[in-house]
Automatic annotation (TrEMBL):
Residues 10-24, 43-52 have a biased composition (Basic and acidic residues). It comes from Algoriphagus winogradskyi. Residues 47-79 form the Rho termination factor-like N-terminal domain. It holds the Pfam family Rho_N. It comes from the Bacteria. This is Rho termination factor, N-terminal domain. Residues 1-52 are annotated as: Disordered.
Length: 82
């Protein structure tokens, strides 16, 4: 049975799976709290094909700090490392 991590974690099952894979608590929580974290589709464009605004919006969605001052290249790097 999945442990309840309280109201700060929206998807406890996903959080535990990510922690078991060795992710930090912060990164696992960020991913588990993303509304579409449990859905698969594989139809998203590559980061390089997206506009800077699309990348900014995605960075905002996953909670990347300092995104407003980042270039497109920096947004891509931050999204890949978050």
């Amino acid at each position: 049975m999945t442990k309840n991590h309280g109201p700060s974690i929206k998807n406890d099952e996903k959080y535990e799976a990510l922690r078991d894979e060795g992710m930090s608590k912060t990164k696992a929580a960020r991913i588990a709290n993303t509304p579409k974290s449990g859905k698969k589709g594989g139809k998203a464009k590559e980061y390089e094909e997206r506009s800077e605004q699309e990348l900014y919006d995605k960075a905002k969605e996953v909670g990347i700090a300092g995104r407003s001052k980042m270039t497109k290249k920096e947004l891509i790097a931050s999204l890949r490392n978050s």
